[in-house]
């Protein structure tokens, strides 16, 4: 649960507040943040709701994902790289269109 602390701090809420919403002690929640204790599925769902995110975002460090993606690019053929670039341009265009609506 690599991102709990980052997500909590981004929301500017205390460990005690999150713990209250989960129905656990602050120490139990602190152990989730420190990786000393793993949350069950129901708790992960509640955490995702509290932080307005996904379970995947809670469990996976975004920086690790980005490094893996960058390393994966090196394995693509020139044709695959071109298709990837076209897809990225499509996604950017789609985002820009939605921002202007």
Helix content: over 70%
The DSSP helix count reads 7
Oligomer: single chain
In this structure, how is the largest beta sheet organized?
none
Q: Order of SSEs, N→C? A: HHHHHHH
Radius of gyration: 18 Å
Distance between the termini: 36 Å
Query: What is the mean pLDDT?
Result: 88
Beta-strand content: under 5%
Which secondary-structure class do the elements indicate?
A: mainly alpha
Unreliable stretches, pLDDT < 50, 5 or more residues?
Answer: none
Got a strand count? Answer: 0
General form: elongated
Describe this structure in words.
- By secondary structure, this protein is an all-alpha fold.
- It is built from seven helices and no strands.
- Helix 2 crosses helix 3.
- The longest helix has 22 residues.
- The protein starts with a helix and ends with a helix.
Q: What would a concise description of this structure say?
A:
This protein is an all-alpha fold and 101 residues long. The chain has 7 helices and no strands. Helix 2 packs across helix 3.
Task: Please name the defining characteristics of this protein.
elongated; single chain; mainly alpha; 101 residues
Topology:
Elements: H1 4-11, H2 15-22, H3 26-34, H4 41-51, H5 55-59, H6 62-73, H7 78-99
Helix pairs in contact: 2-3
